[in-house]
Write a structure and sequence with these properties.
- By secondary structure, the chain is an alpha+beta fold.
- It folds into three domains: 89 residues, Orthogonal Bundle (Butyryl-Coa Dehydrogenase, subunit A, domain 1); 104 residues, Butyryl-CoA Dehydrogenase, subunit A, domain 2, CATH 2.40.110; 141 residues, Butyryl-CoA Dehydrogenase, subunit A, domain 3 (Up-down Bundle), CATH 1.20.140.
- Helix content is 46%, strand content 15%.
- It is built from twelve helices and seven strands.
- It has a seven-stranded mixed β-sheet with strand order 5-6-2-1-3-4-7.
- Strand 1 and strand 2 form a beta hairpin.
- Helix 1 crosses helix 3.
- The protein is globular.
- It starts with 8 loop residues before the first helix and ends in an 11-residue tail after the last helix.
Length: 390
């Protein structure tokens, strides 16, 4: 089944409920094998999840930002790695808007999946009809299941001592899309958390990439009409990934509540759930979680409203987007840490949901999307110093 254009949030919640048994059944398998189970990927493909941000012109659903964030949150509640895959493979659909039609249609034909990394791990030299690229990209989540893999490259003109610069004085960062057979996957993914994401290295050596499969990270523009695609690739990916931690936080609260109802701590006569201190800490966790959700949801609405009347996101709303993302990451970590701490020794064992939540949220928060650097780089905006990059 492929979800239709114009679907409602309720349609998506029902679709998530249909894939939930598959996700829960194979969740531990992903942890063990360090790559998301093929059964989960196929279930999500059958429901059209990876086409949610694909432009309508190419057969996608093109749902709004807020609804998409809610999908990622809910999938992350069920399984962190599954939510992360939606944030990578699903968001890659939006990247096609920044490619000319030939490239977009080629890389999405037949429901093909696209993985990608904004890490500038590649070097490309312009040649007739395109580029020759060499590079190695770490943390290439979803590469095992992707037909096409995009890597961020620095452009070097033949014989030039340094990278090509854009008219704005910044290096020319360009996303190039490779066939999965153009390169080699190297299994480097032995991680603290998000083990099921299979975030391996991908290597290419002197591969030709035609111009229609290349687009500037900061200089490209959308070739389709949807307001969503006025956002740059970095804004699309970072906003989607920022809410994975919120889904993990929700799972941590729910898991602790289940434990508290049945656990009587050592040397105690009553279950955890009867203690006033537990009541207060759970209430604080709920407030942190709900506040972070409300903030990023409010900003998502503001973003879509602003893009209806602007060609790009106004600086003041871009500042709020960054703050909402880093705030979501920090709040999620605080929630998970507090629930893990309250659970006592029950949470320390491999296989306990709170153990996984702890490892996963701290792994998510190592990503640039929610890095604490954004507090500084966004704070300077309020002192009239512009929006800095990390």
């Amino acid at each position: 089944m492929t979800l239709a254009v114009g679907m409602t949030e309720q349609d998506l919640l029902e679709a998530i409920e249909r894939v939930r048994p598959v996700i829960e059944h194979h969740r531990d398998e992903g942890e063990r094998d360090r790559v998301i189970a093929a059964e989960i990927v196929e279930a999500m493909k059958s429901e059209g999840f990876f086409q949610l941000w694909l432009p309508k012109e190419y057969g996608g659903s093109e749902i709004d930002l807020l609804t998409y964030l809610k999908v990622i949150e809910e999938l992350s509640r069920l399984d962190s790695a599954t939510g992360w895959m939606q944030g990578i493979l699903g968001t890659s659909g939006a990247l096609t808007a920044h490619f000319v039609e030939e490239g977009a249609r080629e890389t999405t034909a037949g429901g093909a999946l696209n993985a990608g990394s904004v890490i500038p791990g590649g070097r490309a030299v312009p040649v007739e009809g395109g580029y020759r690229a060499t590079g190695r990209w770490p943390l290439m989540s979803g590469a095992h299941h992707a037909t096409w893999i995009a890597g961020n490259c620095l452009i070097f003109d033949e014989g030039a001592p340094g990278p090509r610069m854009t008219e704005h004085g910044a290096p020319d960062f360009t996303m190039m899309v490779f066939k999965n057979t153009d390169g080699t996957i190297v299994d480097t993914w032995h991680s603290t958390g998000l083990r099921g994401s299979g975030s391996v290295d991908f290597i290419v050596e002197d591969v030709f990439v035609p111009s229609h499969r290349a687009a500037g990270i900061f200089t490209s523009h959308s070739h389709v009409a949807g307001d969503l695609y006025k956002l740059g690739p970095d804004q699309l990916f970072f906003t989607g990934l920022a809410v994975v931690g919120l889904g993990i936080a929700r799972a941590a609260i729910d898991s602790f509540m289940e434990l508290a109802l049945v656990k009587t701590p050592t040397l105690s006569l009553s279950p955890l759930a009867t203690r006033p201190t537990i009541h207060a800490e759970v209430a604080k966790a709920e407030a942190r979680y709900q506040s972070a959700c409300a903030y990023i949801h409010e900003v998502a609405r503001e973003i879509m409203a602003a893009l209806e009347v602007n060609d790009k996101l106004p600086p003041e709303i871009e500042a709020r987007r960054r703050l909402a993302c880093v705030n979501a990451g920090e709040a999620a970590e605080q929630v998970v840490d507090s629930m893990y701490r309250l659970a006592g020794s029950s949470a320390i064992y491999n296989g306990h949901r709170l153990d996984q939540c702890l490892r996963d949220v701290h792994t998510v928060n190592q990503h640039l999307a929610v890095s604490p650097v954004w507090w500084e780089r966004t704070g300077q905006f309020y002192f009239g110093q512009g929006l800095g990059m990390p």
